[in-house]
Amino acid sequence: MHPIVSALKHHKTVVILVVLEIALTCAIVSNGIFIIGNHLATMRMQTGVADNELIWAESSGIGDASASASQASRAAADLAALRGMPGVKSAVITNSLPLSSTGSWGTCIARKAGGADADSVCTVIMYAGTTGVVNTLGIRLSQGRDFLSQEYQDYDPFQGSRAPPPSVIITRSLAEKMWPGEDPLGKPIFLGDRNSGVTHVVGVTDHLLNPSINKQSGADLNMLLPVTLTTGNMYVLRTQPGVRDATLRNLPKVLDRVDDQRIITENHSYSDTVSDYFHDDRALIWLLLVVIGCLLALTALGVIGLSSFWVQQRMHQIGIRRAIGATRRDILRYFQTENFLIVSAGIALGLGLAVALNLMLMKQYELPRLPLAYLPAAAIVLWLLGQLAVLGPALRAAAVPPVVATRSV
Amino acid sequence: MFAYYLDLALRSLRRNKVLTMLMVLALALGIGATITTLTVLKLLSGDPLPQKSTQLFYPQLDPYPKDQPFSRSGKKLPWLMSYVDAMNLLHARKAQRQAVMALSQVKVTPQAQDGKAFYADGVLTTSDFFPMFDAPFQYGAGWASADDESREQVVVIAGFLNDKLFGGANSVGRTIRIEDHDFRIIGVLRPWAPQPRFYAVHLGGRDYGKGEAVFMPLQGARADGITPNTVMSYGPEHTDMQHLETAQSIWLGLWVQLSSADEASAYKLFLANYAQQQVALGRFQLSRVAFWDLMSWLRNEQVVPDDVRLQAGLALGFLLICVVNTVGLLLAKCLRRSREIGVRRALGASRGAIFAQFMVEAGIVGVAGGMLGLGFAELGLWGIRHQPAQYASLAHLDLSMFLFTFLVALVSSLIAGLLPAWRACVVAPAPQLKAS
């Protein structure tokens, strides 16, 4: 070890440069991989509905001011037409869907009537759906039961004085937040103006994502209310496998046939909606992957360039060492150890930089703290990369014949 | 002399083709990434109205109750104003020009028989909007302030909507059906879309993009039941969308034009007095106000998406590593040529000459890297234009960024060349000659 270190002392500048390059790479790569991991974790979350069987459309332009009775009959006509389409298992109207980014209603709900702030949970998302909503969306209940047909009621959360439907299905996350460690079934939830309305929990689902995932309302803090009609007018259809795309194409025509004055603003398969939702995440992941790939390649090339240069410069010394008894393996080891030392110094500096960079990102972009497990992973990647990069030049050095020592260069 | 160094540099670069290509490629990747992200960043953080931005101001009031502040931390003031406050400030006419505004999605029904109705972005505003924001008219003009109060059913439409509905002809005087009411067109705008769309921030529109299609007098549109995109309530009651004017809700943005710093401080004083007066009247509990000029407002509201800033930082870090890499490779190369340097020094070349020779070599790598980097940047921007981002269509390399590319390339390569060139010029000639 000692001769290697003293040899490196003669090349301070170059060694410092390589150490610096490895340190910067280490900092950026570990944070980059961490960001990728974060986004992948979000993308892998279960939506809680039957992703591949749903299609949806949104229509407006049905006179919003018209009486709710005529709205109800229009909605019924629409749903009847949609259910009549070949391959459609069921159809409902909802206000929103997980990850659809539209029609999201947030509200505060309370454990007690007229509850104080301590008794309420805010930014809870309200889903509302018409008869058959649980089966149509494919929501799996882990506890309790589906809504009964008489529980679907005429309810509009924007008219806060109206009584809510008698029953509600909530997510496990909401249950844990409302009544930690308790059985949520049958518990009352108060909502509306001054928390005057009451409804009771009849079912709990483990998975149902919010219309959008954000810092305020988290990923799945929501509840589902049974209604007969809802503003937002999102028609959701569950189709037989295989006919989904054909049904999607015909959907606007079927709706137009019922009423051609409407404007169909959205018409998508649900799996496209989910994929659109994560578009930015995917773009960022690809960008980071490309940058990380380029950085690693660049660092490797830098190491190769410098090691080749050193091998060439030390041709004479290598010859002398071979002549006085060093084996090829010794020469190979020498360059590999040298590389290991330099890369280790780079990693040591890089880990500090990585943590500093993460602190900066946490402050600027509200990223979570970098788990320490990422640091040894980045270190191992860089050690392997360094050894791989030095292998070629080191083998060339090992191939130098002892006779070189006798030549004057 | 320069020509000679150029010749020497080219010879040296050609001798080590792979190494040279690596250096150029690395630098080009770093520059390509940097220019791509900086172009987007510049575009997104640009001045939407360069000729006017120093004269435009955004006042904020706080009608929220003390114990239920607008923001959780209690530090941020409400983004918007209630109808009563916005109208009080508008009618006070303390600024040179002032306009209130809200954004709305409106249904537009074409007059043609087979025309299908569609949704368009609309601005509900008052008469000063057009002169204050320098919105240019192709045909006709905006409405007068008297039309605001008389709830005139008039509308100004954007050029792209005029092209769509009337084939680009002068449509002033014709009618257009919006939300099932007839509006008379009195003006058609030329293409006009300040980026970022500063006045739309927090009104429920997009921060970037082509701009709205219709501009209507606020009171007239409200009389027809047109509702704004964003309404936030600060009272205990649920907001009735039909009676927003009297509701305890904020939903309007107010912009004022003031031509000097004195006028701005006078207006700020007026605003503070107004808030105190409202506290005295019992309407407000808090008398705090805020008053932003346009660019500070955009900065404070962080209109530029986080992702874009993150990417620019990432690209700069990448460029830094590319430069460090180039320093290392150039250094290795120059140390290998110690003997050649020794010979040149012995033959009479000064240290300055050796330094210049190596800097020229680094410069050539820089220029080549810049040219290739420009290609990478164009490729990167092409990629961004095919993303579904709001600002996608705006991502183009302008002349200043084009020149900036070469500046970045040259500067970074010269910085990379400094250390190797310094090391080269301090090589002592004698030992080098002796060794051979």
Overview of the structural elements:
The complex is a heterodimer of chains A (409) and B (436). Helix content of chain A is 48%, strand content 17%. With 409 residues, chain A is α+β, with helices and mostly antiparallel strands. Chain A folds into 2 domains: 2-43 and 279-406, no CATH class; 62-261, no CATH class. Mean pLDDT of chain A is 86; it is low at 62-66. In chain B, the strands form 2 sheets. Chain B has a 6-stranded mixed barrel. A two-stranded antiparallel sheet of chain B has the order 9-10. In chain B, 49% of the residues lie in helices and 15% in strands. In chain B, a hairpin with a 2-residue loop joins strand 6 (175-178) and strand 7 (181-189). Chain B starts with a helix and ends with a helix. Chain B has 436 residues and is an alpha+beta fold. Chain B has 2 domains: 2-45 and 305-435, no CATH class; 53-300, no CATH class.
Average pLDDT metric of chain A? 86
Protein structure class of chain B? alpha+beta
Number of domains of chain B: 2
Distance between the termini of chain B: 28 Å
| Rg of chain B (C-alpha, Å) | 30 Å
Q: Which spans of chain A have pLDDT < 50 for at least 5 consecutive residues?
A: 62-66
Query: What is the CA–CA distance across the termini of chain A?
Result: 27 Å
- Name the chain pair with the biggest interface and residue counts per chain: A-B, 45 and 45 residues
Helicity level of chain A: 40-55%
User: Looking at the structure, what is the overall shape of chain A?
Assistant: elongated
